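Margin note from the TA: students keep mixing up input and output lines. Inputs are the sequences; the output is the structure of the whole complex. Example:
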Amino acid sequence: MSIENLKITATLRSPLVGDPPYLDALLTYELGFKMHKFEDMKFNKSTPIEKIERLPIPLTQCEINGVKVNSCSDPIFIIKTEWHDKLSKRFETDRLSLLIDPNKRKNITPGTGHLKSRWQPLHAKLVDKIVWFARGDAKECRRLLKGIVSLGYYRKIGYGLVAKWEVEETEKSDNFIFGKYENKKILMKTVPIGNDLKYTEGYRISYGACIPPYWHNGNFREIAIPI
Amino acid sequence: MKTTGTVKVHCISRTLSPLTHMMETAGNESIINREKIFHKGTVKSIPVISGNAIRHKMLREPGGMYLVEQCGLKGKLTIDQANYMFYGGALTESTVAENMKTLAGLKELFPLYRLLGGSLRNQIIAGSIIVQRGILVCEENREVLEVSLPENYNLPEQQLKSSEEFIKEYQYTRSDIQKSKEGTEILKAEEQEGETKTNLMIYNGQSIIPGTLFYHGFILQNISRLEVGAFFHSLQNWKDSGGIIGGYSRIGHGRLDLNFIMEDSEDFITAADIEVCISEYKSHVETNKEKCIKWLNDNFQDKKKKTEKQEVLIDGE
């Protein structure tokens, strides 16, 4: 395993719904499949966090405010434009009435209940490229990312399709947690709040996770999110 | 040879009649569905066929209808069963459970729903197919098409037509019997007396002209040969039933001529295996139809019956 500074780029070929994922979350998910971790048990919020193993993803770790976070930046992207697409769903009583058992045919109310017709707005974003900076093993990252064909929500109906992944070495940098912009120290990754953020700018305070699994409330704490 | 793998299918579809895939209405005019793209420094709205429409019309509906016919379920389904088979179902119970036995039964018996996923009354089942949106083959989409088309398929070097050249307006009239010549002969005399309200209506909208090309595709992830069979069989059924997408099919709109290219995966499946996979799927459904009916009845039984059954079990104990 050779550790390098990496610039990882996902080029998209369809609009994105939702936010781009964290790189370490993506790598953890894909590695979990490769290691057959999801076959034995299903993980959800009620699974104790101690029982969820932190997988050996090919990124280095560094300690920020007492928490070992992965050395990778949050996703960096430019939204060129955004709009609302619509997702429709309707139980077509007119087509199906003869297929239903005569004793089960009844009036249904498409305005409410589980057969409610939907005309759901989807917030679509036009994003050409998503970039992450990271420190880790390029070959292993390439191998894991190759299997990821789309990002974001509603992937099943063609949103967030990835045209190609590029993993390239980049010039030396101390780490990808803090960056420099106009001689100011700015935050590039979601990290826990604490003394290490002294003299750092460009973040907002929130409550959430800064290590995978990001959805588990066992990992929630006060965090700083780059803006 | 692997037993599971990933299959990529690229499709080029040509419209054989005007395509009306509407997004919204402005007055009585329906507006074609569009997505925004970035072209030469400006944002443009380009017609697109949604993945949701392709998924339902090309796969779920024909696939579900085949199962209903093969299992002899016409006139025997419950509303929840029909909702699951044709529209993906909905969570209806307040407590979400993860019943491994139910999931295993579904995955073993229904390759189509293993592919498409859906929602049972108390659990959501992930699918394994990604349905791509239908991208209009036009100059504005050149960059997207170049990265999407399979290897060895290139766009012509000369400029393609602009997207707006593929859009035309249609207009129809809904007649009213009171205004027609025959009305005076067939309507009751009292219906013709006095002032009457008329239902005569002109409606119009945008459609895509016949002969337009759309690129779309499917990515089937970690699937078995049975799912490949279910996929191509549904697609074949959709083609055989006229290959319709979008609205106004009653007046001949939305006919598509679909051609596909499957990326060969030497260690899993090649284009030559498609017919074999379809036969395997058909024989799987034929062999397991009794089990399929039982599974559907067990998992979508009436709440009342379910409670009675539980009570019997408790009494039995």
